[in-house]
């Protein structure tokens, strides 16, 4: 830590309560009041160094030369700073440090202690020392912290801007090029001489900051106003937005204690020590404005926790909307558990489905604006499995996330059908290669809401495309008594189409195998028995299709035959029967 001693005389003052007396032996002829403190001093040492005090003493002095009383309640730094100034005027040693130089510089300017009132006056001395302070990271942080007490004066003298610029340059530079100690402040706002000096510990070892987050902790000790200025300056100098985001995250967790607590259904508002809810609310609203807006820079999990905390603290609507917009733009990165936000409003639902709906709509809007809209198509199950990695696009990931979310909130008996449908329909059809997820959510909703009417059941089932159900989901739906009969018939119809497609493909294979050009393989092996086996399997599939068609006709005539029909069809066996043939087809 940089320091400088000024003056040479021994201590010439002593304190009695809130009164400071000069021990020179001369009778005091001026009393200066600074707050609750009184200084009994002499005119000549003061007016010889301060233009402001010279004018004040001349205006207050009487012709008889009696003692005068002056008030300096507005002096920057208060009584503690004026005590040091008094010692300087009397030639007593004072020590300039990063903790007192800002207030002394401001007070010296206030008192007009320029070189016009003595060579080597306090304005010049403190300005020279400030330039030394700005060359060191730790001292600059400490000096900037002390600006909080004399903000207006420090602004007028551009001390804050110079200090912030100095810190921004160092934060953006390679820390290994400088002798900067890591986390040297650690919140210890004292003048203990055991501190680090120029990056050297008392043991003589040089401490070097490591990693790109080396400055986060030091910056977190600043008040929010100064932290905002530092972040803005660092960002303007080209710091990576990811580092800016991490610094804001670090600061948030330190100054908004509610962020560090798990918000549960039974514990929605948590009292935190040291920081009131009002202070946390104000801080959070400011912090949200510091977050980079570029997609993917801020961790989605952090943003969702920030949103929950904002709801608990009842921050402004604009701040919550900004968070929802940030989350919505990168919703594909969210985890299901983080979307289960407890309802803080007046709605009867357990979870805040309105908030999630707005984020889904924001995602769809941003995706369409970016032109990420594939053409709608029906995806075959086998093709989906084969090209699964290619199908994991942001819209597909969000569709899977939303379907899982619907399945989680569907058991809530207070969840209205219209709201369930709105969330499910918010995801465009092209985002779901298969509708197994939405079918599962619909089934959970129907089970939890058995009292809804038949027309409402029909309506909710329109959310899923029976043609986009997998074999397993189709088998389950065909035996699901909670579904309307029309939906079950559709499932069976598309299942039949799928079987017909399989039969056609097997016929194609069979004809190729019977072709004389394909009788022998490259190694002379005869493939005829294989073709005969394929024709037998195709014959079995034909019989199954005929049987299914007959049963469908019976089902349309009488709904009462449903249970016997599903038992006779035995879908599990049919699906298992198809799997080996599909595998053989792929092998060929």
UniProtKB/TrEMBL annotation:
Keywords: Coiled coil, Ubl conjugation pathway
SMART domains assigned to the protein according to its UniProt record, in alphabetical order: BTB
Domain BTB: 28-98
Known pathway: Protein modification; protein ubiquitination
Coiled coil start-end: 531-558
Residue stretches making up the NPH3 domain: 213-498
Gene3D superfamilies on file: Potassium Channel Kv1.1, Chain A
Keyword Coiled coil: yes
Keyword NAD: no
PANTHER family: OS12G0117600 PROTEIN
Family assignment from sequence similarity: Belongs to the NPH3 family.
Protein name, UniProt field: BTB domain-containing protein
The encoding gene: A03p001170.1_BraROA
């Amino acid at each position: 830590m940089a320091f400088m001693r000024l003056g040479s005389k021994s201590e010439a003052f002593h304190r009695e309560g809130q009164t400071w007396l000069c021990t020179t032996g001369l009778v005091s002829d001026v009393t200066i009041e600074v707050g609750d403190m009184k200084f009994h001093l002499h005119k000549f040492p003061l007016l010889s160094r301060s233009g402001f005090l010279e004018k004040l003493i001349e205006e207050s002095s009487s012709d008889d030369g009696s003692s005068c009383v002056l008030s300096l309640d507005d002096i920057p730094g208060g009584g503690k700073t004026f005590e040091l100034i008094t010692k300087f005027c009397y030639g007593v040693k004072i020590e300039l440090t990063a903790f007192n130089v800002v207030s002394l510089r401001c007070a010296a300017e206030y008192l007009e202690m320029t070189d016009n009132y003595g060579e080597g006056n306090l304005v010049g001395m403190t300005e020279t020392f400030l330039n030394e302070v700005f060359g060191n990271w730790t001292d600059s942080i400490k000096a900037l912290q002390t600006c909080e007490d004399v903000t207006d004066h420090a602004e007028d003298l551009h001390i804050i801007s110079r200090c912030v610029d100095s810190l921004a340059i160092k934060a953006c530079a390679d820390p290994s090029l400088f002798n900067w100690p890591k986390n040297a402040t650690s919140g210890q706002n004292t003048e203990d001489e055991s501190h680090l000096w120029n990056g050297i510990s008392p043991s003589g070892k040089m401490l070097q900051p490591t990693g790109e987050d080396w400055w986060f902790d030091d910056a977190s000790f600043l008040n929010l106003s100064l932290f905002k200025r530092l972040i803005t300056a660092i960002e303007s100098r080209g710091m990576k937005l990811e580092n800016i985001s991490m610094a804001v995250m670090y600061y948030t967790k330190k100054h908004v204690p509610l962020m560090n607590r798990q918000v549960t259904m039974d514990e929605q508002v948590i009292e935190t020590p040291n920081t009131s809810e009002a202070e946390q609310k104000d801080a959070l609203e400011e912090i949200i404005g510091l977050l980079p807006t570029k997609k993917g820079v801020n961790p989605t999990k952090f943003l969702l926790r920030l949103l929950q905390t904002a709801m608990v603290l009842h921050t402004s609507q604009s701040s919550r909307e900004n968070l929802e917009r940030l989350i919505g733009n990168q919703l594909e990165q969210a985890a299901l558990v983080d979307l289960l936000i407890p309802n803080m409003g007046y709605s009867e639902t357990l979870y805040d489905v309105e908030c999630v709906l707005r984020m889904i709509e924001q995602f769809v809007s941003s995706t369409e604006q970016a032109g990420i809209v594939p053409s709608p198509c029906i995806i075959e199950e086998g093709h989906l499995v084969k090209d699964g990695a290619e199908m994991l696009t942001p819209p597909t990931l969000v569709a899977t996330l939303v379907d899982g979310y619907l399945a989680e909130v569907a058991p809530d008996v207070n969840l209205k059908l219209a709201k369930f449908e709105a969330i499910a329909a918010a995801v465009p059809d092209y985002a779901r290669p298969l509708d197994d997820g939405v079918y599962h959510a619909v089934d959970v909703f129907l089970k939890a809401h058995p009292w809804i009417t038949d027309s409402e059941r029909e309506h909710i089932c329109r959310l899923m495309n029976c043609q986009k159900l997998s074999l397993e989901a189709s088998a389950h739906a065909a035996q699901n008594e909670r579904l309307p009969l029309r939906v079950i018939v559709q499932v069976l119809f598309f299942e039949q189409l799928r079987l017909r497609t399989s039969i056609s493909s097997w016929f194609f294979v069979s004809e190729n195998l019977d072709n004389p050009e394909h009788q022998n393989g490259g190694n002379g092996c005869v493939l005829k028995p294989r073709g005969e086996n394929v024709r037998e399997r195709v014959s079995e599939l034909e019989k199954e299709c005929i049987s299914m068609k007959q049963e469908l006709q019976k089902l349309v005539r009488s709904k009462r035959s449903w249970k016997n029909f599903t038992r006779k069809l035995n879908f599990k066996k049919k699906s298992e029967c198809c799997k080996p043939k599909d595998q053989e087809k792929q092998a060929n």
